[in-house]
Every structure is written in C-alpha cells, then in structure tokens.
Specification:
This protein is an alpha/beta fold. The chain is 53% helix and 10% strand. The protein is built from 21 helices and 13 strands. The protein has a seven-stranded parallel β-sheet with strand order 1-11-2-10-7-4-3, with helices on both faces. The protein has a two-stranded antiparallel ribbon with strand order 5-6. It has a two-stranded antiparallel ribbon with strand order 8-9. Strand 12 (563-565) and strand 13 (570-572) form a beta hairpin. It is elongated, with a radius of gyration of 40 Å.
C-alpha cells in the first residue's frame, strides 16, 4: 500500500499548509511584537546610591604614668661630675612631669570610661544603621536593575521599530500589538519545523544587535545583550522538571528560606537575556501532563515561579503514526491556545537557500545537489520520492527529504575533500553513502547524475577556467543534438556546472579587499562569460542569462548595487535587469561576438548604460 503524500496528510489532519519561508516571515514579525514593551506611561529615574554609615571609632585607653628612675655614672673626675649634674637635672624634670601625669591620670581614666560608654552605644546604633543600609542597598540594586532594564528596553524598542519598518515597509503601530497567539508547527520529519523557529530567532537576534546563544551552558556569559534560544526537547518527557526545574531551598531578600524550584541554566538564562525564544520541541511525543505545561506558557509566558518576558514561545510536533514517530494526541486545550499549522518545505525555496549558502562557495560546492533537484523538480511523480516522501514503517533505510538532502550534501563534501574527488576507486563508497541517506532510488539516480557531470562535463569547464582552453568541438557535438534526451541532459548539466563555476568566482571576487586584484578578477570573469555566449543557441543563452541575473549576480555582495530587497528575499532591480537583458539577449538570427559582449557586460557592472552592438552573422564568431 502506497504511503499518503504530504498534501494528503495535511488534508487528513485538517491543517492549513504553510511553507517554511512563509512561516519565517510571519514568526520573525511576531517575535518583534513579543519583545517590544510599551513604555509611554512609564518613567524610571536613575536611583541615588545610599551612603554607607561610618563605623564609630573606639576611644584610646589612657596609659598609666611610669615613674622615672635616676642612674648616675660612677667616678670622681670633673667630667663625670658634670655629666651626673645634667642627668640629675633631667631626672628632676621627668619626676615633675610624672607627678603632673599622675594627677591628670584619674581624670583621663574617667573621661575614657565616659567615651567608652558612648562608643558602645554608637556601636549598637551602627549595627542598626548597617542593617538599614544593607536593606537600602538591596532596594537600590533593584532600582538600578529596573532603571538599566528600562533604558535597555527603550533602546531595544527603537531597534525593534526600525527592524519592523525595514522588514514590512510600514511604520510601527503600537495599536497592532495585542496578546500573542503562538504557532504550533506540525509536519513530517525533516521539513524544517525546528529550523523555521531557529532561523527566525537568528534573524531577529542579528537585526537587534544581540548575541545569539542556543542552549547556553554555565561557561557562556548571558546578559541583556544576549538572545537565548532554548530548545527543550520534550519527546518522551514525563516529568515537568525539564521546564520548571528541581526542588531546592531559596532565600528571599531578607534571608528567609523557602522551598522553591531551581530551573536549568539554559531555562534560567531566558530570564537574564535581553530577548529569547523557548522552543517546546516535539511536544506530542510528551505525556499529557507535560503538554499541560504549555498552557500557562502560551497564555501568560509563565510557569510556576518562572516568568518569561521578551520571550517568544514556539511549539513543534510530528505526525504520529502517519510519519512513524508514534506520538500521542495533542491536548485540545493546547490546540485552542495556539495557531496550529502544517509545515512543508518547498523544493524551490530549498534550492534558493542552498545556492546562497556561503559555506558551499568553494570548489566542492553542494556537489551538484541543487542542480539535480532543479532538474527533477518538474517530474511530479518523482518529486514525491525526491523531496516530499513520507517514511514507511516497513523500510529501515534512509529516505529523501530536506533534512536528509542537507545531510547528504555535508557528508559528501567531507568525503570528497578527504578522498580528493570522485574517482573509480571510491565510486562505490560515494554511491552507497548517497543511498544510505536518500534511499536506494533517489540515491542511485543522484549518483548517476554526479558521475556524468564529474567525468564528462567538469573536465571541459575546469580546463577552460584554469587554463583558458575550451574544447569547442566536443561541446558543439553535444549541444548540436539538444533535441534528443541525451542532448538535453548534457545541455542542462553543462549549463549548471558552468553557472556553478561562475557563482564561485563571483563569490571570490566579493571577498577580495584589494581593488586592483578585484577589478582584474572581475574582468577575467566577464571575459569567461563573453567566451561562452557565442557557442550557445538562443534558447540556451536565454536560460543561461536568467541564471546569471537571478542566481549568480543576484545577492552577491560584489553586485549588491544592482539588487533590491523584498519582505522574503532579494530580487534583481528593474534597472539592472533591463541593462543585463539588453546586453545579452539576442535573437536566433543574431550572434554577438565575445569582444562586444565583454564590453557590454563591463559597462553594465560598472553602472554605465551603453547600447548593444550586434553583428548579424549566421557564422559562429567564437574567439578564444
């Protein structure tokens, strides 16, 4: 029995279907509303620090006078007599002073005891003053915290309002802010439920200038300048401690002890961060008791002693028996408090994202995966197995979906790098790797595609880019037969590999800082494009030109002057599109020579608007 398609599952579940791109756009705006706090009627003054009491000084006890002693020198010489006379004279003075000190000593002792009594009273008063000071200091710390939080929120609000305007093109309207109804994303494995929330969180964090931290550990500093993403995987959970924490003794400001709950560091960090997201992941695989935890979190952003401000709550769930994850039913009380939607990634969106993944802008790239996907995406029957397949309980191997395709790219990149490319010795390993993640059918087809590009097409184009040598005869033999299935396939693979090389070169240009080197590399790239155009027919040029406009120059930092942004993705500006089309679109009767095309492309990329000069000539004017 054939598995239900993803669309049939959505219909069976009675769920509205959203693409991952649509949800990212919706959730990132909802996050702005959640994090924004109205401060119009609030005023918090910078508190004045209390003055610390001065500790009383203990009086010094008077020293008992010491009676002087007389010690004379022995002898009868005149010199000794003179010295003894001086000693005696000094002794008499010391004795007189001693008698005076003795007469005053009793008064000093009496005064000392009086001061000591005053000191002891002052010490008692000082103890009370210190307690009062410490109480004021605690209050002061709270007021400082409130003031700093208020000032931080003011600045954060300004960033939120500006980001909202940048994303929507509309001014912030506080009247649109109301109690948030969060999304619960339901869908099969691998279609980006968690990724949607993570991507929205990263976009908000970046635009608000906050440091993104996911599931932070105690070694990571979390403060108001942090954005915390806490992914709480609830699959199989039967205890609420994962959210609320463990029982522990807690103290209040006065030192009184109570029994409270000690949450995990990651959960606690949500209360310390400037903003964050709590993701209750795979909630349907948790017990009903755990599902009920989501009710106060979605209603009031709180649970037990935990109050989550500036935190967006996201929820995900699998499909249960339909996708083999064996989940229980979802609480109707929870469903009534969230927006429950079905998540489905779209192959066009996936291709768009991966082709702009800078991680793949090297010689290995995505190992032809997006080209393979694009080549197959119009085959609706095959597309179910390729991108929208549902796991079967009868199968134990891998199956193809966005997650496994992404994993395949990363696995193949590592293998190809480790083994120095695809060759006859490692073909079997590469083939089995593809089948282990994508399933036998899709993995086998992808391997045949890769093998054909690697052995037949890559050497031709690599030789052209590295040595400026183009095997025009071999290309003509293949491209002249574009009406046969093999010819069409070769034309597509040739064009896609060529676009891949140009995309990588354009990225390299973008990261070069030396202007001289940058200009030289840009001219070399334009020269390569100009050499390719004359050997393509009109239909091939049209497809190649579209890719240049939409998939290579578009979104590249070096050519950013020619692109504009919409709510969801970058689009080519009308001005640049017109110039590019004007320079490269030719009719089937007209062939533009590479030197003229090079000049026109150069003028476009430098911002000039020159008319295109064409040569009406049926002969191929290819020049090396």
């Amino acid at each position: 029995m054939k598995n239900m398609s993803i669309d049939e599952v959505a219909k069976k579940k009675g769920l509205p279907e959203f693409s991952t791109n649509q949800l990212v756009d919706l959730i990132k705006i909802e996050m702005l509303y959640t994090i924004h706090k109205e401060l119009d009627d609030v005023s918090v003054e910078n508190p004045e620090k209390p003055e610390k009491p001065t500790r009383p000084i203990e009086p010094i006890k008077p020293v008992t006078p010491e009676k002087p002693t007389l010690t004379v020198l022995q002898g009868s010489s005149s010199e000794i007599e003179k010295i003894n006379i001086e000693i005696y004279r000094a002794y008499k003075e010391d004795l007189k002073k001693y008698k005076d000190d003795v007469s005053l000593y009793d008064e000093k002792v009496l005064s000392y005891h009086e001061k000591m009594n005053e000191y002891q009273d002052a010490v008692l008063s000082y103890g009370d003053n210190i307690k009062n000071y410490e109480s004021k200091l605690v209050e002061y710390s709270k007021n400082v915290e409130a003031y700093e939080k208020f000032e931080f929120q003011k600045v954060l609000n300004q960033k939120i309002e500006q980001t909202y305007t940048d994303w929507t093109g509309k001014p912030w309207n506080k009247n649109m802010k109301s109690k948030m109804t969060y999304f619960m994303l339901i869908g099969p494995p691998g279609h980006g439920k968690t990724t949607v929330l993570r991507q929205a969180a990263k976009m908000v964090s970046e635009n608000l200038g906050l440091v993104y931290r996911e599931n932070p550990t105690v070694s990571e500093k979390v403060d108001r300048n942090s954005f915390v993403m806490f992914v709480n995987n609830l699959a199989g959970e039967v205890s609420k401690t994962g959210v609320s924490g463990l029982p522990a003794k807690v103290k209040d400001a006065k030192g009184n002890e109570y029994t409270g709950l000690l949450p995990s560091y990651a959960m606690s960090s949500l209360t310390q961060a400037g903003a964050g997201m709590l993701l209750l992941d795979d909630i349907a695989n948790a017990s009903n008791f755990i599902q009920n935890i989501a009710l106060p979190l979605t209603n009031e952003n709180s649970f037990n002693e935990i109050k989550l401000e500036n935190v967006y709550v996201g929820i995900t769930s699998n499909l249960g028996a339909l996708d083999g994850t064996n989940t229980s039913t979802i609480s109707s009380a929870l469903r009534n408090r969230v927006k429950t939607v079905f998540v489905k990634d779209h192959i066009e969106d996936f291709i768009y994202r991966e082709r702009r993944n800078e991680q793949y802008f090297d010689d290995i790239g995505d190992f032809f995966m997006t080209d393979f996907l694009e080549n197959k995406k119009d085959d609706k029957e095959y597309l179910e197995d390729l991108f929208y397949s549902m796991p079967s309980k009868n199968d134990m191997g891998g199956f193809s979906n966005p997650r496994s395709i992404k994993a395949t790219i990363n696995e193949l990149r590592r293998l190809i790098y480790d083994q120095g490319g695809l060759n006859e010795e490692n073909e079997n390993i590469i083939n089995l790797t593809m089948q282990s993640t994508l399933g036998n059918r899709v993995g086998g087809d992808f391997f045949e595609y890769v093998k054909d590009v690697n052995y037949q097409i890559a050497p031709i184009i690599d030789n052209f880019f590295e040595n400026n040598l183009l095997d025009k005869q071999k290309i003509d033999e293949k491209l002249d037969d574009v009406f046969s299935p093999k010819g069409k396939l070769f034309e597509y693979r040739f064009r896609k590999y060529l676009e891949r090389k140009i995309r990588n070169e354009a990225f390299k240009i973008g990261v070069i800082s030396n202007k001289f080197v940058k200009t030289k590399m840009k001219n070399q790239l334009i020269d390569k494009i100009a050499h390719i155009y004359p050997i393509l027919n009109d239909q091939q040029r049209s497809a190649f030109s579209a890719s240049l406009r939409e998939d290579i120059f578009l979104g590249n930092r070096e050519f950013s002057d020619f692109s504009i942004s919409t709510n969801s993705r970058e689009c080519i500006s009308d001005d640049f599109a017109k110039k590019l089309i004007k320079a490269i679109k030719v009719s089937s009767q007209d062939v533009i020579d590479n030197d003229t095309l090079k000049k026109q492309l150069t003028s476009i990329l430098s911002g000039e608007d020159l008319s295109v000069k064409k040569k009406s000539n049926k002969a191929n004017t290819f020049k090396r």
